[in-house]
Amino acid sequence: MEQVHVEKLQELLNSFADKDVYLHLETTNGAYASHFNENVFNAGAFIRNIVVKYELGKVAGDSPHRVGLKLPHGWVYAQGITHFELDEHGRLLMAGHDQAGKLAVALQISETPFTY
Amino acid sequence: MEFAQERHVLVVFPHPDDEAFGVSGTIATYIKRGTPVTYACLTLGEMGRNLGNPPFATRESLPHIRKQELLASAKAMGLTDLRMMGLRDKTVEFEDDEEMVGMMAKLIEETNPSLVITFYPNYAVHPDHEATARAVVRAVRRMDVALRPKLYGLAFANNTMEKLGEPDIIHDIQPAREQKMGAMRAHISQTAWMLEEMDKRLEAGEPEAENWFTYERFYTYRWNEDFEDTF
């Protein structure tokens, strides 16, 4: 993955607009967060291979960026996006890595289903 | 403490690398003695957060990398019966509980172990660890008492010592030091930072780091304090 280049990422987001796409969205602070620090409230969410069709996708702000998708009847957004790549299967992978390099958020868009 | 003589050892954990820190010395020791060992690893650690800094892996490429690491770890331990069970990381507790028990019962039926090693329910911290431990305990509980294999649990919750006391099974794994080091290094995508720290500590002669390569500790499952009455 490479660090987000806003224009490049914006162009990629545009290329998936107005199509049925499979979505992966994940936020996490790790299963051990409250094991290592009992003051941490461990929250996260995960959704994979949900089909959406967005009419507008936008990357906003300085790094770490926000990425939002406007749907006909709703929204998807992710906060903390630092890296992106179009992988060898033509899938747009976006991720936010914290200071230690650990993944904190992922937003991925693909025209074909992600594996299981 | 001497290793007990076993007919077959079945190890069940949810993540590649779960075996490395806690039981790879034990696995390698049994294999050296000619005792067959089966390691069933339920997921490929698809949801791991360590992707390198700068990242060398993505959410989608991570399982491929971790599968290779798992194979390398098995090789380091001398393990030939490695079973990848095809579940997804962080979803084990959401699988159908009865199907999970069935998966474990089938593994036990196929391998006929005299010893099963997994996590200790309620002391295993990660939801996948807990779900794995519950399923194994349930499968063993359903067996005729006389036919049940021994069951060792790994426990590392913060309240373990307070609630369970000292582990009753302590394996001296020093002769398997190289194999354990190999297993830990095999999972480099997940252990790089920890290993760097460990090397420093080993160099400094810190006893705690040396501990990884000295003993592995387990709790024999306490059927008289079962985590649930029935399932």
Short summary of the structure?
With 116 residues, chain A is mainly beta.
Considering the chains and any ligands shown, give keywords for the structure:
heterodimer, A: 116 residues, mainly beta, Protein Yojf, Chain: A, six-stranded antiparallel sheet, three-stranded antiparallel sheet, 2 helices, 9 strands, 47% strand, globular, B: 231 residues, alpha/beta, Rossmann fold, seven-stranded mixed sheet, 17% strand
Explain what you see.
- Chain A has 116 residues and is mainly beta.
- Chain A has a single domain (2-110), classed as Protein Yojf, Chain: A (Distorted Sandwich).
- Helices cover 12% and strands 47% of the residues of chain A.
- Chain A has helices spanning 6-15, 33-36; strands at residues 2-3, 21-27, 45-52, 56-60, 65-71, 74-81, 83-86, 92-97, 103-110.
- In chain A, strands 1-7-8-9-2-3 form a 6-stranded antiparallel beta sheet, covered by helices on one side. A 3-stranded antiparallel beta sheet of chain A has the order 4-5-6.
- Chain A is globular and about 45 Å long.
- The two termini of chain A are 22 Å apart.
- The model of chain A has no long low-confidence stretch (mean pLDDT 95).
- By secondary structure, chain B is α/β, with parallel strands linked by helices.
- Chain B has one domain (9-222): LmbE-like (Rossmann fold), CATH 3.40.50.10320.
- Helices cover 42% and strands 17% of the residues of chain B.
- Chain B is built from 8 helices and 7 strands; from the N terminus they run E-H-E-H-E-H-E-H-E-H-E-H-H-H-E.
- Chain B has helices spanning 18-32, 62-77, 97-111, 127-141, 160-164, 177-186, 188-203, 207-211; strands at 9-13, 37-43, 81-87, 115-119, 150-154, 169-172, 215-220.
- In chain B, strands 3-2-1-4-5-7-6 form a 7-stranded mixed beta sheet, sandwiched between helices.
- In chain B, strand 2, helix 2 and strand 3 (81-87) form a beta-alpha-beta unit.
- The longest helix of chain B has 16 residues, at 62-77.
- Chain B is globular.
- The interface between A and B is medium-sized, with 28 and 24 residues.
